[in-house]
Amino acid sequence: MNRTIKHIHFIAVCGTAMGSFAAMLKSRGYIVTGSDDHVYPPMSIFLQQQGIEIYQGFQPAHLEPVPDLVIVGNAMSRGNPEVETVLERKIPYTSMAAALKTFFIEGKHSIVVSGTHGKTTTSSLIAWVLQSAGKSPGFLIGGILQNFGRGYQVGDSDIFVVEGDEYDTAFFDKGPKFFHYMPELLIVNNIEFDHADIYDNLDQIKLAFQRLINLVPRNGLLLAGAEDPNVAELITKAFSPVQTFGIDASMTWHVANIRYESSATIFDVIFQDQLFGTFEAPLTGEHNMRNILATIGTCHFYGLSKAEIAEGLRTFKSIKKRLEVRGIVNDIMVIDDFAHHPTAVRLTIEGVKRRNPERRVWAIYEPRTATAKRKLMEQQYAQAFDAADHVIFAPLHLPEKVKAEERLSVENVIQELHKRNVSAHILPNVEAIVEHVIKQVHAGDIILIMSNGAFGGIHELFLERLSRNNNGTE
After folding, report:
1. φ, ψ dihedrals at 275, nearest 5°
2. DSSP state at residue 135
C-alpha cells in the first residue's frame, strides 16, 4: 500500500485476533477505531486501554471522519450497514489476513503454523522459545499466551509467527487466511475434516493445504506431522525441503523415553536417528509431544542452541483455555480447555488422564462450532470419551444455525457412549450440569470443561459452589 494511511477502521473488532491486530496497528502509531455488535469485557476494556475508540453496533456514522483504510472482519457480509457504506463511498478496504501480510509479515521470516489441531499451542511455544532466547519475534496468535499476558507482539526482530487458519478470509475473499502469510517455514501438524460451514468435504480442505505447501520457497522448510496420512500424502509434492515429526521412529524428529510426571513431561528427542537432547515441558499427551517437536524443529532451523530451546520449553506457561487450571477447591480441580473437534476432545481427555491416572475425570462438553453441531461427527464423538470416568453433554449451542436434518443428535451420542460402558448424560443447561456434578464429585476429581466459548460462565459457577460446600455454607 503506497498511499498515506493514518486512520484505520475495523468492521468487527472485538474478537481475540481482530482486537490484538488492532492493538498492533495502534502501537505502530496509526489512529485505530472499530465497530462491533459484541462490545463487552474483557476485549472492550483491553481496546480502550490501548486508546482505541470502539462503537457499539454498525452504523454509517462510524465511518466519519472517513478512514484511510477499512479492515473487514470475516464474519461480515453484504447487508451490514458499514460494509454497504464502504462499498458505496469507495473507501479502500481489505481483510485482516491481507493487512497482516502488508503491515507486519512482508520482508520477515514468516513462520506459519497450520493444521486442524495444535495451531495455538505450537505457535505459542515457538513464540516463547524464540523470546526466551532473546529473538523478540513478532506474533499474532488466537489465544492469550500466559508468558506474555497477550496474544500478540510487534517484535524487534525479523521473525514473525502466525497461526495459519484454513477458514475463509472475508466475504470478498473466500480463500483461506493462510494464503496471505508468505510462509518461509510452514508447519502442517495434521489435517482432518473441519469447518463444515466452509468446506463440503475433506478433499476441499486437502486442496487448500496443498496450495499452502506450494507457497514454501526452496530455501525454506516444511515441517510435517507425517504420521497423519493426509499430511503424508500432500508433502510428496512439496518444492521445499521437508522434515517430518511425530512419535514414530521413522520421523525426522521423534521422541523416545517419554516420562509423564505430575507437573511436567520429560522426553528424549531424536533428530535424523541421533539423540538431539533431553527436554522437559509442562505439557502432557502425545499431541503435545508433536507440538513440541514442531517447535524444536522450527527453532533449530532458525539457529537456536539446544540449551536455548530447553530453557524456553521448560519455562513455557501455556495458553488460556488450553488445559488452563481455573481453580482447585478441596483437591477438586476445574480445568478449562478449547477442545471442540472429536480428535481434540479425545486427546485432551487422554492427556489429562495420563498425567492423573488415579483421579476421576468428569468430561463436560458443549457442542458449539459449526462442525461440532453436525451429524457427521456422531460416530467420532462416540469414540472420543473412552478415557473419561463421567461424561456430560450440554445441548447444541444455537442449533438453529444448522439445518435440522444435518444436526448432531446428542441423544444418539449418549446411547453409543452407554454401549461403550461410559457413564454419560445430557443435561439441559449450565445450572443443571453444575448441580448434577456437585452432588457426586469428591476430593481428587478433575472437572474438565471443553468448549470454544464461555459456556455460560460454568467454570466460575463450579468454583463458587465448591467453595460454598468447602466452607460448610450448604
Report:
1. -65, 120
2. -
Task: Convert the pLDDT of each residue in 264-287 to its tens digit.
Answer: 999 999 999 999 999 999 998 888
DSSP track, 182-201:
--SEEEE-------TTT-SS
Tens digits of residue pLDDT in 86-144:
999 999 999 999 999 999 999 999 999 999 999 999 999 999 999 999 999 999 998 88
Q: Where are the domains of the chain?
A: 7-95, 107-314, 324-470
Each residue's pLDDT tens digit, 357-408: 999 999 999 999 888 898 988 989 989 999 999 999 999 998 888 899 889 9
The grid coordinates of residue 28 equal 505502530
Q: Is 3.40.50.300 the CATH number for 324-470?
A: no
* Cell matching residue 258: 517419554
- Alpha-carbon span 403 to 410, nearest angstrom: 15
> What's the CA gap between 61 and 42, in Å, rounded?
25
> 176-185: per-residue pLDDT in tens?
999 999 999 9
- Distance, in Å, from the CA atom of 260 to the CA atom of 356, rounded to the nearest integer, reads 9
Q: In whole angstroms, what is the distance from residue 160 CA to residue 54 CA? A: 27
Identify the CA nearest to 374 among candidates 340, 351, 333.
Answer: 340
Q: Exposed, middle or buried by CB within 10 Å (0-12, 13-18, 19+), for 439? A: exposed
Count of positions (residues) in the chain: 474
Q: What is the pTM of this model?
A: 0.85
Cβ–Cβ < 8 Å for 102, 1: yes
Element (H, E) at 265: strand 265-271
* Helix/strand/coil for 413: helix
CATH of domain 7-95: 3.40.50.720
At CA 158, angle to CA 156 and CA 163, rounded to 5?
A: 95
Place of cell 450440554: 394
Q: How do strand 168-170 and strand 159-164 relate by DSSP bridges?
A: unpaired
Position 473 confidence tier, pLDDT thresholds 50, 70, 90: low
CATH 3.40.1190.10 fits 107-314, yes or no: yes
Helical segments of 94-221, H only:
96-100, 119-132, 202-213
Cα separation, 29 vs 16, in Å, equals 20
220, 242 Cβ separation under 8 angstroms: no
C-alpha cell at 440: 457426586
**Cell reading at 336:** 478449562
Q: Which amino acid is at 97?
A: A
Asked if omega into 65 is within 30° of 0 (cis), the reply is yes
